Amino acid sequence: MRYNRDTRIGVLSMAGAEYQQLEAHLARFVLPQTERPLGQGGSAFVIEGDGDGFRVGVTCGFPFERGGRAALAAIQDHCGTLDFAARIGFSLEWKVDTHAVQQGLKPLPGVGNLIAVASGKGGVGKSTVATNMALALYREGARVGILDADIYGPSQPRILGLSGRRPETTDGKTLEPLLAHGLKAMSIGFLVSEEQPMAWRGPMVTSALNQLLSQTNWGELDYLFIDMPPGTGDIQLTLAQRVPVSGAVIVTTPQDIALADARKGLEMFQKVNVPVLGVVENMSVHVCSNCGHEESIFGTDGGARLSGDYGLPLLGRLPLRKDIGEHTDGGTPTVAADPDGAVADRFAEVALRAAGELAASSKDYSRLFPKITVEGD
Length: 377
Hints:
Blueprint: E1 2-3, H1 14-26, E2 30-31, E3 36-37, E4 43-49, E5 53-60, H2 68-79, E6 87-94, E7 111-118, H3 126-139, E8 144-148, H4 156-159, E9 178-180, E10 183-187, H5 202-214, E11 221-227, H6 234-242, E12 247-252, H7 256-271, E13 276-281, E14 286-287, E15 294-295, H8 302-310, E16 314-317, H9 322-329, H10 334-337, H11 342-359
Helix pairs in contact: 3-11, 5-6
């Protein structure tokens, strides 16, 4: 028998009372990936009768292949405080849905969600953060790609260890993305030499990006990360208006000068109705590679102030470490180079929090309905 809100009428047994108690108790568990109570924004649960007890089925709207086991154990421990005679079993599954994009735009065929990773200025580690977030979600079981949208200064070929590689085409119309560490990747850097300057004006840059996005055979993806160019000029605004984005992540350092530019990037997305999923504070604390001493050389709590001013979540704080730079320059990002390390865990926390925020946003229901065409006789 299924116990839910619609079938409680007439249930007068102890099982019915225990169901209500269990439901209320589960609703008080806060899922770390969304920082929302279980059953709200990005997660759901169903309680079913199981002969001599109950079975709780938890569903999450973000990838949870690795972290799900720990989350389920935490939910089980949370329910362990109940004084039940009935046995309680637990299960968890996840599914990434397609979420709404800007009005007037359609999601990219085959691509569930585009996440733009942006900053108001260069030098804050945006590309490194974007790549490691993408890798973290891939490790959680999602199908993930990354598009290097920085036409003037593409960095993904070097970060992913793909320098000198060229994409192929099988049909003469679309490019096959290159594969690195499980990610599908595309960049203008795959098509030109690393030393060649891109002396293009704005319209040419926008056209090139649109071609890289729409003429790449991405296949089926749950997430496509867009490593945005720094700044908030005409190119960035045009991309934010024309590319169907489900959500954006703002990367900043704690410095006031970086925060001032990050505010501009954040407000740009808000003006074009792209939901900002949250703020990432990068280079939050410098960690000495010799003694482990930590020092906030760029200031403190800048990301928290920025997110607080706009009522957005602070997705996480990432350290400034020598090995992160070495991994990036070596073509094996930290999440791939040291997947079980503490820094990889930090990137995973940031990525899952962003995915959780996206899961809590509006879904795209247009794909559920057939396209109807009305023609005259």
